[in-house]
Specification:
The complex is a heterodimer. Chain A is α+β, with helices and mostly antiparallel strands. Helices cover about 20% and strands about 30% of the residues of chain A. Chain A is globular, with a radius of gyration of 12 Å. Chain B is α+β, with helices and mostly antiparallel strands. Chain B is elongated. Classes of the chains: A alpha+beta, B alpha+beta.
Chain lengths: ~80, ~150
């Protein structure tokens, strides 16, 4: 299945892109997506996640067509 | 009203303009406001610029929810929330929260609630341009976390 993955702020810089399409049959949760995309990267900070623009947990299920995003703690305001 | 702006704004003008346009003269007895402004220092370093990034779509969705949550908890007549993105300079306003209500308790508490929720959950990120101690070089660094407001 195909999933749109977004990265923001320092994670976007570290991963070298802001968006990618992920095609895999083994994805069931946000944690599965993170496992796939973070392999080969050393991430030394806490990472927040969202599915379809709502905060999510690592065990939140994902389905084809979902938009999954990873980003560092927010610092607005 | 919620607004994400890529260009500089004057929060005081915004409050006056919005208050006139909402046509509730005589109804409100209180307006509480918060304005966040960019400093020219952070963590002991001089800062001369900032880039504010956000997650388009999720930002608006989240800010809508914060304001709706506030309306559930307090009796509010109107709210105005403006947040900057893009390039900022010291002294530029970053965020405005203005809340109108009949009495001050609702306005004060809702304004604080909206601001604290925004600071801890709305998907914005700051990258600041830091001037090195010898003034000869600059470096960019992401702000790691917001301070607690309580």
């Amino acid at each position: 299945m195909s999933i749109k993955v977004l990265y923001f702020a320092s994670l976007k810089e570290q991963f070298g892109c802001g968006e990618q399409q992920l095609d895999s049959t083994n994805i069931k949760t946000v944690g599965d997506v993170w496992q796939l995309v973070s392999t080969g990267h050393t991430v030394n900070q806490s990472v927040l996640h969202s599915v379809n623009q709502e905060y999510a947990e690592l065990d939140t299920p994902v389905k084809a067509g979902d938009e999954v995003a990873f980003f560092p703690p927010v610092t607005g305001g | 009203m919620i607004s994400i702006l890529e260009t500089a704004f004057d929060p005081w003008q915004s409050i006056v303009g919005y208050q006139q346009a909402m046509q509730k003269d005589g109804e409100y007895g209180a307006c509480a406001t918060f304005v966040g402004t960019m400093r020219d220092y952070n963590e002991g370093d001089d800062v001369n610029g900032m880039l504010l990034e956000h997650y388009p779509g999720m930002t608006e969705k989240h800010l809508d929810r914060i304001v709706e949550d506030a309306k559930q908890q307090w009796q509010l007549l109107d709210t105005l929330l403006i947040h900057r993105v893009g390039e900022l300079r010291p002294n530029d306003p970053i965020v405005l929260v203005a809340v109108w209500s009949v009495h001050r308790k609702d306005a004060f508490e809702a304004c604080r609630f909206i601001m604290e929720d925004l600071k801890s959950k709305a998907p914005f990120w700051k990258k600041e341009c830091v001037v090195e101690a010898d003034q000869q070089a600059q470096k960019n660094r992401w702000v790691e976390k917001n301070t607690s407001g309580y």
